[in-house]
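User: I'm preparing a small set of examples for a lab meeting where we compare how different chains pack in three dimensions. I only have the primary sequence for this one, and I'd like the structure in token form so I can line it up with the others. Please keep the answer compact; I'll paste it straight into my notes.
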Amino acid sequence: MVRDTHRARVLSALLIVSVMLPCVLVSAVMAAGPYPFESDSIEVSAALDYLSDQQMSDGKISDFSTSAWAVMAIAAAGEDPNDWRVNSNPSVVDYLATSAGSANATNDYSRMILAIVAAGHDPADFGGRDFVSLLKATYDGTQIGDSSLLNDDFWGVMALVAAGYDTTTSDAIHDSVSFILEHQNADGGWSWGVGQDSDVDSTAAALMALIAAGQSVSSNPIEEALSYIKSTQMDNGGFESWGATNSATNSWAIDAIAAAGQDPTGPEWTNNAGNDPVDDLLTFQNADGSFNWSSDDPSAQMTAYAINALVGRPYPVAIQEPIQDFTYHVRVEGLDRTIWSGSVTVEESTIVDDEGVSHHFDQPTALGALHEASLTGDFTYVVQDTSFGLYVYSIAGEEPEGSAGWFFRVDYYSPMVGAADFILNQTTPPDPPHREILFAYSQWGEPPLRLEVDNTTPDVGETFTVTVNTFDDDTGDWSPTENATVYANQHYVTGPDGTVDITIDTDWTLEVRAEKDGHIRSNRVTVTVGTGSYSKEVSMSATIMPAISFSVNIDAIDFGDDLAPGDSSAPVPVTVTNTGAWQLLITAQVTDAAQNLYVDGLILDGVGWDEFSAVVARQDAIECDAVLSVPETYPLVGRQDGTLIFWASDGR
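Assistant: Understood. Below is the structure token output for the 652-residue chain.
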């Protein structure tokens, strides 16, 4: 299908309807039929026609990001975006491929993945870029993208689900979902950023992400979020944003409602005035099929949003065939410290032993995970090729001594094969999927500790409980660990049940871990108390010196009592010292009531006082000679007084 064919079909439908309903798409309308709308309904067809009319010869619809949203809308409406083109020119999908380099941020990668999958292409190989790897590279081991933002987690989760990642095994999805749930506000909603006030747009995106990741629609977080959205519904049926409704907020909220399996035109979403959100969304549609954001501002992006909402196809529009997630958490526990902890992606690897021989593995192995961790964590490791296979001899310079050395575990189990032979998500025991690979410097047979915290975001003064358990290699069970030392704001010791209660009376963020002789150090859990910041009062004082200040070594100058007209006095040295903070420019001023004896006769450093100037650096001084030259025609006799004034200004 090309643009002209599509447009002619829709325009014909509009002409027929315009005879019957001349006001359609101009004034507020009610939903024309049961929700969701069919793709050939007047409302959806007109919106598609508008998008088609906005397409340019290079395939673009409005701009780069809007083109991606348009691809999702086109696919949601049941049409093939690969066929959307102006005559024989590139399609909108071709445009995204040739412009793939324009994506350079986390949300760009997510939006591209959602659009690429909706168009039926591989997001790992599109336009010469691997958008899946680009997105996964923003996963920091706890969440996707910027840790101060939430919107990149919403769309990142949806994108990874669309890319086919298993929601039960993907660390990036699992951890980001936990991050999202952790930051649900008390009112049930979410914001675009951590700690910000809830808004409908962000809450709708969070709902779609959680539901796409497998969260039950009957779970408390989903029900509370839907209640928050409902609480913002206005008399016109739409949802409040900045004091009014708009098409984008309505569209995403309708998407979220549909994702939760509810009818946005049903009784639960129809208010006392008889209006529902679809009613209000349609008030933003224009006669040409476009949608405004709020007033008279038609937008291809708003139109694309509205199409998804009208046809009841929330994001992600399409999901690829499931693919295996090759991301694993690696923890390296040294003799006295945690050398590294984080997530890595490993598929195949090449390991070089201490003799310089390369060993290639075309499947993800535990040793390959260590190799990737060393590259990310910038630490070294050495393997030796022995008769039993590759052996991890040292990590970060820590070499074996006696019966102590490097051992590895997968999901806390001690495997029966070496790290090079343990194929992740395949070798057993333990049963796949595998999540964590632990390398620990320990004695043979030392069991690992595992630490859990019942509340990682307690309020200031609120008690949280830390539980420490020990893994039993024989039974595969965990048992409480008594007398383990828990490191938090101070040292604590666990009781017989392996627990200890901790209360912290100030805002603080800390990493809690546990240790016990004869055991492998535990994992670390971040606990954020209150706001998470830690404050300590430190008294401060400072003495501020003046910017401009100076001193003169004498208070009066006596030029003698035997001067006569035409005489010059002996020089009198005057020292000016800079006592301020700035470099000073020193000048002089003279006054007298002695018929200008000093005004005409005072000489400083060989020049008339009115020509005198000197620069004095900070903490420095200058010395100048003051000489009185009595004019030959001077008429007065006896004692004559005058005043010399030194002036200081900014000499920098």
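A couple of notes for your slides: Residues 3-32 have pLDDT under 50 and may be disordered. The first strand starts at residue 291 and ends at 292.

User: Perfect, thanks.
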